[in-house]
Write a structure and sequence with these properties.
The structure is a homodimer of 235-residue chains.
Chain A: E1 11-15, H1 19-31, E2 35-39, H2 42-52, E3 56-60, H3 68-77, E4 84-89, H4 93-97, E5 106-110, H5 114-127, E6 137-140, E7 143-146, E8 151-154, E9 157-159, H6 163-174, E10 180-181, H7 182-189, H8 200-212, E11 220-223, E12 227-230
Parallel strand pairs in A: 1-2, 1-3, 3-4, 4-5
Antiparallel strand pairs in A: 6-7, 7-8, 8-9, 10-12, 11-12
The structure holds a DNA duplex (30 and 30 nucleotides).
Chain lengths: 235, 235
DNA sequence: GGCGAGACTCAGCAAACTCACAGCCTCGGG
DNA sequence: CCCGAGGCTGTGAGTTTGCTGAGTCTCGCC
């Protein structure tokens, strides 16, 4: 939603054996302007990489034939140098992934929010020089958010945000002046399997306001019956 | 109504097993300049998509054979990439819809107002680049309404409207210079199952006038015995 | 194992909104 | 000019919606 697709779309290969996950990720990435292929096994993944030469892999570590690390190893062995984002469960396999962020790679633990995944993808593409966008900074009025450094400042004064607060603010800043519905915010900022009380959103808006909007002109506005928006006070 | 149909009409497929709902939606959309097909079951829907290649689906989640999500899944499986607006009841199924705003998709909970539905359709077509209109702004004389930002201004001065006032004004602005009957206004702006006193309409016209039409040339005009219209004073 | 931070739930309060109603006003026909 | 139907608007009740402080639970860290 944020941006129009560039003249040349970036090709991404999504590898996961759960069709639901593949669907959700594919939809979101297509919508973000990526060209998406998918595969369900390690073997398919390697074949698809050879055939389509994607510029980035989103790769589940848990695959029916051999695991994601093995896929990465084989690609490296074949001198295919493509950045990878690993999807991992929040369990023991998480440890194995730790060393991976050393290369161009990164990982995201399931369940994740789509915002999270897209942000990682953008970061990696930027680092790899593939993306069109050079900056990792979002700016609205005197509010700044650095996606890479995970830093936020208002009027130059740094602000500490928790992970959820950060994601929420980032999504708002990606869509300034547009009213985002509760559904959109919940879908993008919370994990894809979040099934809880929708009122969390209000709680976090409240938190954000207390940290970000205490001073001067408030930027976070409620649009009753619709949702929230980031904008300068009017008139 | 709003605008002359583009050289090529946008094709919409409406899927619902309640003939009443299909009729109401179809009529409204045809009136808005869409080319409308309909189907009553999931199987029919898939066949119709294959045969007619609609550019958008309005899809009830509750269908006699298999549900709307399944239809979506099968279409995705067949690599048919068509945006979908799901119709859902305000109950447990509402939860399942969670995640749908991720892709190009969206949902509307029953009972909805036709204005609501049409607004969502326009937004999605705009986002998907299918619509002829790139802008989310409606303009009539010095009155402006931004659908994305949910902002209204008269002569540059911002105006605060409630949700209902906003829908009513939007419907008027979508049909400038045309006289809209009370029935049309009630049907489009209020939920289709609204059973209350038709005099609400007058109340809201009154509200709107106080907010929008206080200054200079009044734009909202009563056509006695018929309805209301948005136009410049004649003479 | 205890502690603290963060994520989420919950409930009560406050404000805003929707709608009904009723009396007044206006328009247009006779 | 008078009258009636149709339209307008102030008042207020009932409901919805949103905000916030307090509490629970989990998890990582010491």
């Amino acid at each position: 939603m944020s941006s129009a697709p560039p003249s040349e779309q970036v090709r991404v290969l999504v590898v996961d054996d759960e069709p639901n996950i593949v669907d959700v990720i594919s939809m979101a990435l297509r919508f973000e302007g990526f060209e998406v292929e998918s595969a369900g096994t390690g073997a398919d993944a390697i074949a698809a990489v050879a055939a389509r030469r994607p510029q980035l892999l989103v790769l589940d570590v848990m695959l029916p034939d051999f695991d994601g690390f093995e896929v990465a190893r084989r690609l490296a062995g074949a001198h295919v140098d493509v950045p990878i984002i690993f999807l991992t469960a929040r369990d023991s396999t998480e440890d194995k992934v730790h060393g991976l962020t050393l290369g161009g790679d990164d990982y995201v633990t399931k369940p994740f929010s789509l915002e999270e995944l897209v942000a990682r993808i953008r970061t990696i593409l930027r680092r790899a020089g593939i993306s069109e966008e050079a900056s990792s900074k979002l700016v609205f009025a005197d509010l700044e958010l650095d996606e890479d450094a995970h830093e936020v400042a208002r009027g130059g004064r740094p602000i500490d945000l928790t992970a959820t607060e950060f994601r929420l603010l980032r999504y708002l800043m990606l869509n300034p002046r547009r009213v985002l519905t509760r559904a959109q915010l919940l879908d993008h900022v919370w994990n894809y399997d979040f099934g809880g009380d929708a009122r969390v959103l209000e709680t976090y808006i409240s938190y954000l306001r207390k940290k970000v909007d205490l001073e001067e002109p408030p930027l976070i506005h409620t649009v009753r019956g619709v949702g929230y928006t980031l904008r300068l006070p009017r008139g």
